[in-house]
Task: inverse folding
């Protein structure tokens, strides 16, 4: 299975081919230093000639990773783009997306305006890159900015005529993933690029090197993309579904979810699934990373179940069997627990209603009902997260003093070891150590005073502390 979508080659007139050949011949036959651009292709340096071509003849690349996820913003225009990428309406759609914010394609990206202003002031410093059919492999965003500035031509390096879509993708990635890249791929587009390389059969170690990250980061990205795709599939309802672009801007929250899910799954697989469902729901409801952290595997029983309106509460089901049999295989697997079923039900409500609210073409009554449901669910999550946060912060405060004392105990154990070592080496300074002990005595006395206040039934440890402080007072 190939990881690259292969679009049909654009229909090109003989006039364009003649112009391309003429410009290349002129560049190669010119006296003086020829301008070339070097690209990394299959681990080798490939030097290609740079020529000047009319912008009207250059085409935006429908397979560019720059806006791969954002293409799903408008489903109808995306269908046209996939079936007829070289039509004017498809090229216009790509041009709009290249100017838009990755997280919200309805808004213009300030970074695009910065690039446009830079080109206006200083011109084109680096050449773009095109195929023999005029498809922009690198420089799509620059082409969009130059067109807005009214520039009629663009300097581009021309790739060999034999290049396939796989070659085009490899070159684009090698250029865009350089450390000096002006504008990085958005989060989802980076996930898609990694997934594409995996589907091409490239080893994870090679992908990690290509994307300048660790192998475990590649694995994390694979997990996150599969999670996103699962949520999109589950969200389908009333002809609407979530889009890849809906998950832009969630990078840190999804990475944190992967880490917490992985750690919990080792000891409690069901708990990890419950955690994942509620946190995904909270992400789509727009809660911040600091809020989502308070959601754990006991979130529903402890907090959400008390806040969720009755009409939105999952229906009670009969006790599940301990195991379930996979049809056709006769293999028994542990059945899904009631807690997981409840979590999935609530998460799917959020997934479907979110998709319906964002859908462009949907019945207004359905949208209105979805908005009401989503609003009530968000209010319930808000209250539940607030309670969970207050409880968690209180729990931390209650444990803070004990944790400090444990740290002090560990330090004292290390101190004993250092005293032994110093005496063995005859390097123990009695006077300095005595001064440190005097400071320690003062702190112990203050601790005893605070702990003894209002403590009518002191334990063994508190009694010892109070007795030690009392001995100090007598002396």
Result:
């Amino acid at each position: 299975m190939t990881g690259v979508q292969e679009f049909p080659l654009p229909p090109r007139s003989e006039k364009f081919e003649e112009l391309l050949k003429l410009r290349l011949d002129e560049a190669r036959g010119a006296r003086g230093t020829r301008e070339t651009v070097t690209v990394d292709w299959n681990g080798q340096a490939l030097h290609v000639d740079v020529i000047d071509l009319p912008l009207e003849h250059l085409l935006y690349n429908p397979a560019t990773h720059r806006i791969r996820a954002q293409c799903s913003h408008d489903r109808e225009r995306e269908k046209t783009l996939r079936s007829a990428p070289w039509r004017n309406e498809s090229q216009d759609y790509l041009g709009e997306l290249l100017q838009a914010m990755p997280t919200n394609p309805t808004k213009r990206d300030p970074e695009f305006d910065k690039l446009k202003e830079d080109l206006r002031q200083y011109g084109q410093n680096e050449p773009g890159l095109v195929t023999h059919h005029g498809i922009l492999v690198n420089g799509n965003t620059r082409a969009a900015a130059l067109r807005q500035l009214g520039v009629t031509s663009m300097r581009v390096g021309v790739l060999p005529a034999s290049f396939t879509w796989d070659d085009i993708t490899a070159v684009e990635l090698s250029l865009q993933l350089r450390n000096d890249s002006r504008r990085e791929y958005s989060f989802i587009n980076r996930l898609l690029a990694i997934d594409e390389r995996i589907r091409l059969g490239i080893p994870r170690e090679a992908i990690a090197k290509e994307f300048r990250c660790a192998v475990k980061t590649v694995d994390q990205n694979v997990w996150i993309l599969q999670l996103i795709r699962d949520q999109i599939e589950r969200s389908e309802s009333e002809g609407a579904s979530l889009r890849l672009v809906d998950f832009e801007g969630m990078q840190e929250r999804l990475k944190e979810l992967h880490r917490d899910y992985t750690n919990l799954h080792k000891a409690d697989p069901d708990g990890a699934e419950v955690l994942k469902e509620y946190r995904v729901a909270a992400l789509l409801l727009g809660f911040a990373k600091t809020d989502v952290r308070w959601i754990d595997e006991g979130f529903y029983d402890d907090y959400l179940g008390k806040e969720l309106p009755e009409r939105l509460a999952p229906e009670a089901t009969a006790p599940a069997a301990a195991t379930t049999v996979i049809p056709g295989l006769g293999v028994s697997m542990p059945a899904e627990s009631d807690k997981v079923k409840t979590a999935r039900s609530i998460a799917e409500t959020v997934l479907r209603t979110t998709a319906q609210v964002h859908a462009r073409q949907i019945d207004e009554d359905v949208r209105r009902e979805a908005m009401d449901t989503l609003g009530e669910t968000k209010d319930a999550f808000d209250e539940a997260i607030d309670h969970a946060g207050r409880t968690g912060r209180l729990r931390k405060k209650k444990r803070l003093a004990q944790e400090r004392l444990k740290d002090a105990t560990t330090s004292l154990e290390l101190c004993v070891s250092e005293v032994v070592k110093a005496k063995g080496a005859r390097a123990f300074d009695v006077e300095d150590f005595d001064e440190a002990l005097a400071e320690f005595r003062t702190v112990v006395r203050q601790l005893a005073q605070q702990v003894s206040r209002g403590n009518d039934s002191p334990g063994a440890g508190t009694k010892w502390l109070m007795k030690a402080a009392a001995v100090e007072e007598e002396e």
The longest strand covers residues 44-54. Residues 176 and 182 are 9 Å apart (CA to CA). DSSP finds 17 helices and seven strands in the chain.
